[in-house]
Amino acid sequence: VTVSALTELAEAVKSAKWNLRDLKNLDTWMLRTRSKLQPDGALTAVENGPPTSTQVARMYSSLSASDKKTKLEELTAEYKAANLLGYSRLLERLDLSKRPTVAAIINRPGGIGERQDGHELWQMVPKAADVSSDEKQDEIKEELDNFWLLTPKPTPDQLNDVMYELARLWAKKTGNDLA
Q: pLDDT at position 97, please?
């Protein structure tokens, strides 16, 4: 095993998880997570939620009422299995160590964790990524206010990284635009 192989493995593991805060990795995380959830129908389950009688009636209009009920039961059983799979795959891709409040919400009695509800867990992702709330805007303002260079004489690469981070923060602040 080479050092470069270990480094590559460490980066792959690091990028497989998202901490619900680091928005610069959200798009990559979302693409990889969707590909992990896709094969067994888990993506459809977590995105769309459980089937409803209205959906079954619309899709299977030629069936009798009792056959529609049977079809709904079949689809619900399939959904539950896919949703449970989605929950486990999604949970393993989230790093909740920096979000104890979110972890507490998931673990509360009768909550998402107890029900192992992949659909509800999936719904938390866009909420966590939303930076428009007053609370998030205050956090961003504080980050901008406390932003500084780590060294008085940065290398061009260090300066590039810092400027990228500053631009990322600036773009998240409501009313700011990089264009």
A: 86
CB neighbours of residue 110 within 10 Å: 7
pLDDT of residue 179: 57
User: What pLDDT, on a 0 to 100 scale, did the predictor assign at position 10?
Assistant: 55
| The residue count for the chain | 179
What's the helix, strand, coil split of the chain in %, to 5? 70, 0, 30
Task: Name the residue with tokens 């992949």.
Answer: 118
Residues of the chain with pLDDT under 50: none
Residue type, 92: E
pLDDT at residue 64, rounded to an integer: 96
Number of neighbours of residue 100 by Cβ within 10 angstroms: 9
Q: What is the DSSP string of 69-130?
A: HHHHHHHHHHHHHHHHHHHHHHHTTB--TT-HHHHHHHHSTTSHHHHT-HHHHHHHHHHHH-
94 phi and psi angles, rounded to 5 deg: -110, 135
Q: Compute the distance between CA of residue 126 and CA of residue 121 in angstroms, rounded to an integer.
A: 10
- 119 with 50: CB under 8 angstroms? yes
**CA 138, CA 69: separation in Å to the nearest integer?**
50
* Residue 179, helix vs strand vs coil: coil
